[in-house]
């Protein structure tokens, strides 16, 4: 166990933030983020979050506003390959 990571929920939320930052850096406009944590996905879709990871959820929501469309979606883990924590589909920019 890594003592610098508070929980698996923090890791999932950070993966969302990193995915959104990457999509933004690459110039994508339409993003669908799929994650295997139902709890994090529900928090990202909720209007208000008072959990221990609320700061991460807030950051992810703020980043998501930079896209024309951004959708968060739960996908059960069996939908992933062996070494992926988070998959995202990104639509390439037209330019």
TrEMBL record:
Pfam families attached to this UniProt entry: RVT_3
Organism from which the protein derives: Hibiscus sabdariffa (roselle)
Classification via InterPro entries: RNase_H-like_dom_plant, RNase_H-like_EbsB-rel, RNaseH_domain, RNaseH_sf
Protein name, UniProt field: RNase H type-1 domain-containing protein
Alphabetized PANTHER family for the sequence: BNAC02G40300D PROTEIN, RNASE H TYPE-1 DOMAIN-CONTAINING PROTEIN
Domain RNase H type-1: 6-79
């Amino acid at each position: 166990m890594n003592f610098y990571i508070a929980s698996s929920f923090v890791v999932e939320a950070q993966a969302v933030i990193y995915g959104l930052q990457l999509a933004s850096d690459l110039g994508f406009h339409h993003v669908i983020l799929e994650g295997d944590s139902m709890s994090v996905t529900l928090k990202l879709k909720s209007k208000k979050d008072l959990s221990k990871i609320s700061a991460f959820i807030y950051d992810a929501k703020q980043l998501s506003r930079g896209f024309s469309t951004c959708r968060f979606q739960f996908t059960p883990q069996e939908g992933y390959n062996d070494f992926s924590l988070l998959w995202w589909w990104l639509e390439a920019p037209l330019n």
